[in-house]
Automatic annotation (TrEMBL):
<keyword id="KW-1133">Transmembrane helix</keyword>
<protein>
    <submittedName>
        <fullName>Rod shape-determining protein MreD</fullName>
    </submittedName>
</protein>
<comment type="similarity">
    <text>Belongs to the MreD family.</text>
</comment>
<feature type="transmembrane region" description="Helical">
    <location>
        <begin position="145"/>
        <end position="169"/>
    </location>
</feature>
<feature type="transmembrane region" description="Helical">
    <location>
        <begin position="111"/>
        <end position="133"/>
    </location>
</feature>
<keyword id="KW-0133">Cell shape</keyword>
<dbReference type="InterPro" id="IPR007227">
    <property type="entry name" value="Cell_shape_determining_MreD"/>
</dbReference>
<dbReference type="Pfam" id="PF04093">
    <property type="entry name" value="MreD"/>
</dbReference>
<feature type="transmembrane region" description="Helical">
    <location>
        <begin position="36"/>
        <end position="55"/>
    </location>
</feature>
<keyword id="KW-1003">Cell membrane</keyword>
<keyword id="KW-0472">Membrane</keyword>
<feature type="transmembrane region" description="Helical">
    <location>
        <begin position="67"/>
        <end position="99"/>
    </location>
</feature>
<keyword id="KW-0812">Transmembrane</keyword>
Length: 177
């Protein structure tokens, strides 16, 4: 079904638009999002990828979308454009897709379970990004400071974005189907 649907072209376009929107939100609301000592990082790209995996599992696709490939491409663009360090999100985004696909095997996909899965995925993205930054000495932030000042606010912001955007993304996904 994926080969014959508008989703084949619409999914990467939506992914690219949300990649740009992530940067625009971070730039436009930088005073509110990155107020020392706290930081709220927008992960709309992860939202799009996770919703794709959830909606794909919900409809029982015979030919699944190549989400891991799109996640790696989005990770490469994210790395090169936003972080300047190639390799962190190229690895992290496909891991998120893998974890999401494993979780939807055990949890029936709906709004609340999607919220739980997205919570886990954002935690993975932020934790692996933090560990990579610690490994290459880009940050000296302690683990407890990371949990309180970055992970907590980032989870709050992204879960709010999930609640706001879940149904519009589902509508777009079904329209593209």
């Amino acid at each position: 079904m994926y080969r014959l649907s508008k989703l084949r072209f619409g999914f990467p376009i939506g992914l690219f638009l949300l990649l740009l929107l992530d940067g625009s939100i971070s730039q436009s609301f930088s005073v509110q999002l990155f107020h020392y000592p706290s930081a709220m990082v927008s992960h709309l790209v992860v939202l799009w990828l996770v919703c794709g995996a959830i909606f794909e599992a919900d409809q029982g696709e015979a030919y699944p979308m190549p989400l891991a490939v799109w996640a790696a491409i989005a990770g490469a663009v994210f790395d090169l454009y936003y972080t300047g360090i190639f390799g962190v999100y190229v690895f992290v985004f496909p891991v998120v897709i893998y974890v999401t696909r494993r979780l939807v095997l055990y949890i029936r996909p709906n709004f609340l379970s999607g919220l739980l899965i997205y919570f886990i995925d954002i935690t993975i993205v932020e934790a692996l990004g933090y560990l990579a930054s610690r490994a290459i000495h880009l940050t000296t932030m302690s683990g407890s400071s990371f949990l309180v000042n970055t992970l907590g606010p980032t989870l709050a912001f992204n879960l709010a974005m999930f609640v706001i955007l879940y149904f519009p993304i589902r509508w777009v996904y079904n329209w593209l189907k």
